[in-house]
What does this fold into?
Amino acid sequence: MQRRWLWALAGAAAGYGLYRLFYVPQLAAPPVARPAAGYDDAMARARRLQDRDGPDVNPLCRTKLFTHGAKTAQAFVLLHGFTNCPQQYVRMAQELHADGHSVIVPRYPYHGLDVMTDEIRRLTAEQLVETANTAVDIACGLGERVTVLGLSLGGLLATWLAIHRTEPAQVVVIAPALGTTTVSQRATRPFIAAVGMLPNFFRWGDAELKAAAPHPEHAYPRISSRAFTQLLRLGVIVGREASTHLPQAASVLLLLNPSDETVDNDVARALFGRWRARGAPVTLYEFPVDLGLIHDLIDPAQPAQQVDRVYPELYALVAGHTPAALIAV
It folds into this structure.
């Protein structure tokens, strides 16, 4: 009898261990939609968001806001990538503003600090979605029509917004970090659990050149293990929600880069393909492989950038025109 109890306890412990190994918790407190009532309300909220940028934030990396003194026909929310900051979108934001649009580029917590900071280890998925959600609330008071555009982590957040927000008329998801090439889909959940139990550590973006590797001066050259697991966690959460919920946004565009060596295109292609098969307003495009684009195809400060070829395609997409070079899939 005692042996049976011991075996039962051992089995229960093993089962619980496996459960913990593969369990990825939902967001502790998902943010709710509180769209700004008008332009003045939006500006007040934008100032509060900008007030989060303390003196330790690189002036280039503060939350960027471009307005015309009144509500415009269209407002853009531009969501930057992991370890980058709003400066990633500086040229695009300025060009969209020059075309008469309002633009907000929010800074995520612990981004835009000294590039060798270790504070990013404190980042959580909850903080990321709260920031993106707040930016959409603000944009609702800046423009009659709201477009969300995000790259990588920003694309992952844009996907979350497409599921949870009804206000955006258009969500443009570029190379979303729904899955990464660093950690396979099969290993993602145990990786999150295992790395989460370890002290934070950093991995260089370029293991050979380290700090000497060419990169934008406002972006971090190292990746925090704890912060990276939060990105992976959000990817699992979004994938789980997308399996049971269709997007609420009026239109969703997925744009993939076949030359991307950072994110797993197959994960994004499968998720958005399932949405489209269920009748959701989803359109898929790819850049031509012969362009050889890098993962960060937005930041003009990237040494291998090709923004003069990329931006016109994105502008055509958001304007509802047929892109000249993109391939519909």
